[in-house]
Amino acid sequence: MLHTTALVFFIGIMFRAISLTVQMLGWWLLVISDEKPPALDMLGAVFSLAANFIFICNALSIAFGYTIVCGHFNFEVCNLYGGFLLVYIVGSGALGVLDSWTTDADRFFVYEAGAGLGFFFLRLFGWSVTLAACLFTVFHHRRKIRFYSVFMPTISVWYLALPLTVLLVKGCIVDYDRARIVYAVELFLDLFASVAILVSTNRS
């Protein structure tokens, strides 16, 4: 089932690339005309959230042993997986609406908005569920412990590095530089985690 997980990863990367392209277009328009269409911000945020959602879905599938059981999850795993997706979708939607209602014109990226803390908690929730799923899978498939010993630290870096970066740069680095650093870290994390997981999955 490697081809399925690889395809989903590449779809997520494509969504991330579209998001970054839209955001770069918005910044370019801001530089040349001192105006950035709000629609571009919204479109970039939608593609960014979609990319994160696709990545988390794929990571959680691997954590639950999708490649081990050839996609045939049992009833309990399906319920857990579906419950997580429901919470994540509803939470992301609610935070997106909150962000659109409370957007500060002076903020430079979404994590500076009021909903930013909510997105962080949602990310940490995804991390905890993914780790729990990994432990569940290792318990039932001991022969895969080597793969998950690589997978868990890798996925943890993806989940935790961005919130830590935002906390570190907030208040220390000004305006545009702060946004550039956060976006650069986010892009690097996506590429790093995707490539690392694909390589480790292929070797497993």
From TrEMBL:
Keywords, A to Z, come to:
Membrane, Transmembrane, Transmembrane helix
One Pfam family it belongs to: GPR180-TMEM145_TM
List the InterPro entries: GPR180/TMEM145, GPR180/TMEM145_TM
Q: Name one GO biological process term.
A: response to pheromone
The GPR180/TMEM145 transmembrane domain sits at 2-195
Ranges annotated as spanning the membrane = 7-30, 42-66, 78-98, 118-138, 150-169, 181-199
Q: What is this protein called?
A: GPR180/TMEM145 transmembrane domain-containing protein
Organism, as annotated: Dibothriocephalus latus (Fish tapeworm)
- Give the lineage: Eukaryota, Metazoa, Spiralia, Lophotrochozoa, Platyhelminthes
